[in-house]
Amino acid sequence: MTPATSRYATLDGMRTHLLEAGVGGRPLLLLHSGEYGGCAETSWQHVMAPLAQAGYHVVAPDWLGFGRTDKVVDFADPRGRRLRHIAAVIESLGWAAPAIVGNSMGGTYLAQDLASDRPVLPASAAVLVSGGGFVPDNDARRATLDYDLSREGMRRILATVLYSPALSQDEDYLTWRHELSLIPGAWQCTASARLRPPGQGVGGGEFGKPDDTRYERIGCPTLVVAGAQDPLRLPGYADELAARIPDAELLTYEDCGHMPNIEQPDRFVDDLLSFLDRRYARRAA
């Protein structure tokens, strides 16, 4: 299968890194997770080629502050600025309403946007992979936030977010993930999510807050994918989330942690294609 190609574009005034595969197919946007070293290639390296082969034009941008995109954080509105940047990516591609898949931070930001009064992202379908719902500030979360840029620190992050120890013990994989976390400015941008002004409690700034997202307002078909052994979410969160979205399906992967798209990529691709094919068939009916 043809691998994804890497390119850059200046969008919303920012140098933006994109991975792309399958030009000319149905539009499909992939939004990556937000752990240290997280970027498009770490989230989607094993799924882009088979999705493109199945007839999709797949684009995976690096969020602002992550990967090889400019290292910028809007401290007044970090989520809004990142979402508007992704909207600029979609506009640059000439897409009206792509299907959008988000993993972890990508899925949470996507769900929050689609449930808002004025969504920024024009999604025709949404896939939330370990995203959405209350994000607890628990021991597992703190293990992913306490990162000192060492190999062992990255190993600890991988051992937390992945159920199987295979990848965290794979020295080549560990080296690759560690090197991506060392891109200048990446640590600072990722660390910004844990900042909290004085007098506003303890813990990371984006974590442990009540979830006031009105999921009932999400108007497109939605697939919720969760790992049964995800330590970064509360047990049963995905069932509650899917129940609140009007047109939702839920898949829970056993023997899987926070990254189903990384731990079980073959099943994930099959399930994603099945969901998207049924969605397109329903539109054509």
Automatic annotation (TrEMBL):
Entries under InterPro entries matching the protein: AB_hydrolase_1, AB_hydrolase_fold, AB_hydrolase_sf, Epox_hydrolase-like
GO CC, any one term: membrane
Domain of life: Bacteria
Transmembrane segments: none
Ranges where the AB hydrolase-1 domain occurs: 28-270
GO molecular function, one term: catalytic activity
Designated name of the protein: Pimeloyl-ACP methyl ester carboxylesterase
Taxonomic source organism: Geodermatophilus sabuli
Source taxonomy: Bacteria, Bacillati, Actinomycetota, Actinomycetes, Geodermatophilales
